[in-house]
Specification:
By secondary structure, this protein is mainly alpha-helical. Helices cover about 75% and strands about 0% of the residues. The termini are far apart. The relative contact order is 0.02.
Length: about 325
Amino acid sequence: MATLVRLQARSKFVAQQYYFRNSVVDIFRKKEYDAAVKIQSWFRGCQVRAYIRNLHRVATIIQKWWRSYSGRQEYQLIVKFASCAMKMNLYNAMAVRIQRRWRGYRIRKYCFNYFYLKEYLKAVSETNDAIREALEEFAEMKEREEKKADLEREEKKRDYQARKTHYLLSTKQIPGIYNSPFRKDPDPWELRLQKAKPLTYQRSKVKQKRCISLSSWLACTSARSFPRSEILPPIDRKQCQGPFRDITEVLEQRYKPLEPTLWVAEPISELKVAREEFRRQEWMRDVNDNMISKLYYHHLISSQSTENYIQKLDKLSKAT
């Protein structure tokens, strides 16, 4: 009993101690838990970083090996292409050399004969010299002929001018403009005027033309109501001196026959006539088509023979 009483008296103290000790233990437990979490996190971080470093190292090794393999393959392709190009260049150079040697041999043997070519060039040079001399002579001859023609042309011009200005010749009473009394010798034109003959103008004959339309109209009328008059003869006169056209050309141009235009030559009702002709042809085509269709219909109804039907169609086609 005494022990029970004693325990009951100490129960409050025991509860307080239990609560205090439990609270202290919780604080230490929390600290230990935090420390354990921190240790675990650090360890796991080191483990993960080590794993990642390992993965990076392995990936680097794989990439290194793959890049080296791909580089070797590309280098082998480059070397292969370079060797092919070198071989082709060598083959081309050898082919060019062979072709050069063969062409040189062929030209020297068959085409380019030195002695023959020398003789040919000598003959060509001689022929060229002869042709050049002949051309020079021909050019000199043509030049002389042109000079002679120019001199003759100038002489003709001077003669024509002298004949045209023959009235300036000096007479016994009056000296001309080319024979001045103040000069010792007369002018050369004075001597040319003395030798020249005066220029005379020929009278041009005018062709008499009659208007066809007017004469035909007068022919169908009576002479009493419309007296007919003959065309007057041309007036005899000298030709005008200067840049004038001939009288015959002027008269031909003045009295030339009428040349109607296309608008006047064609009838006014041409469009109307063409339309009527087109309508008539269309009507004839429609009539022929109707006749052919009627014959075919009657043939089917009356059951005539095929030969008679074909003969009728031939006749219609010939008629159209």
